[in-house]
Structure formats: structure tokens, C-alpha cells
């Protein structure tokens, strides 16, 4: 009998909540650039946590 390793991916719940909260915001026109930066950083952080399958 052989044992195969089992990888369990954790869901980045807090990062998803932040992304959803940012999605629902409606910034003023003069705050649009900073809003887009925060939204982009939240997406990048989420993608970094998800990683890739190539090792």
C-alpha cells in the first residue's frame, strides 16, 4: 500500500471579502484613480494567494 499526498487549497476568504467590498463602492470622480489602484492591488493579492499549479 502506498500513500499519496493530498493537497488542500485554502480559500482566501478575507481577500475575497475585500474585493467584494471594493466592487460595491462608488467613489467620487476625483477619487477614481485611487479606487482603481486599491481594486487592482486587491486582485493581485488574491491571485498571488491562489498561486499556480506549476512547481
Question: Could you characterize the architecture of this molecule?
Answer:
The structure is a single chain. It contains 2 helices and no strands. The longest helix has 19 residues, at 32-50. The mean pLDDT is 83. With 55 residues, it is an all-alpha fold. The chain has helices at 13-24, 32-50. Helix 1 (13-24) runs antiparallel to helix 2 (32-50).
SSE order and pairing:
Layout: H1 13-24, H2 32-50
Helix pairs in contact: 1-2
Short synopsis of the structure:
The protein has two helices and no strands. With 55 residues, it is mainly α.
Question: Characteristics of this structure?
Answer:
0% strand, 2 helices, single chain, 56% helix, 55 residues, elongated, mainly alpha
Number of strands: 0
Order of helices and strands: HH
- Kindly state the percentage of residues in helix: 55-70%
Supply the helix-strand structural class: mainly alpha
State the major sheet: none
Per DSSP, the total helix count is 2
Unreliable spans: none
Silhouette:
elongated
Radius of gyration: 17 Å
Strand content of the residues, in percent? under 5%
Query: Taking all residues together, what is the mean pLDDT?
Result: 83
Gap between N and C termini:
26 Å
Amino acid at each position: 500500500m502506498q500513500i499519496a499526498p493530498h493537497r488542500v487549497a485554502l480559500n482566501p476568504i478575507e481577500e475575497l471579502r475585500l474585493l467584494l467590498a471594493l466592487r460595491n463602492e462608488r467613489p467620487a470622480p476625483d477619487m477614481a484613480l485611487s479606487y482603481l489602484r486599491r481594486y487592482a492591488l486587491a486582485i493581485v493579492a488574491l491571485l498571488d494567494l491562489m498561486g499556480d499549479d506549476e512547481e
